[in-house]
Every structure is written in C-alpha cells, then in structure tokens.
Amino acid sequence: MKNYKALAIGFFIIALIFSHIMCxxxxxxxxxxxxxxxxxxxxxxxxxxxxxxxPYLVGIVVTLIIALIFxKKAKKHLL
Length: 79
Prior knowledge:
- The protein is mainly α.
- 82% of the residues lie in helices and 0% in strands.
- The chain has helices spanning 2-40, 53-78.
C-alpha cells in the first residue's frame, strides 16, 4: 500500500532530522564546554558532552526500526 511506503519514508526523514539536530547540538555543546574549561574553569572534562548522544541515538534507532517495519509491510502488500 502507498500508505505504508509514505510512512516508511516519513520515519526515515524524521531519523535524518534527528541525526542532524544531534550533530548540531553536540557540536555546539562541545565548543561551549571547551570555552568554559578554558575561561570559566569548568571542572568536568569536555568528553562529558558526548553523553548527550544517548537520547538522540535511541530516537534515531527507534524511528529507523519503525521505518523498516513499514517498509517491509509495504513490500509485503505489493506482492
């Protein structure tokens, strides 16, 4: 069905948007952390920022799994 294919493509696009937002957010936070360590004497190391990746990666994996499920259903209904 066309609905399943559209849903699969939609969830894939959502996963791409999540990945781009993740890159932007983590890069900005990392630069901010480096600046804070240098000038404001933050006590945490800069790699702590990479813990921000965890919720984004969970969201990306979930949306890709949902997209895969809808894609398989679209292929199944095609036959």
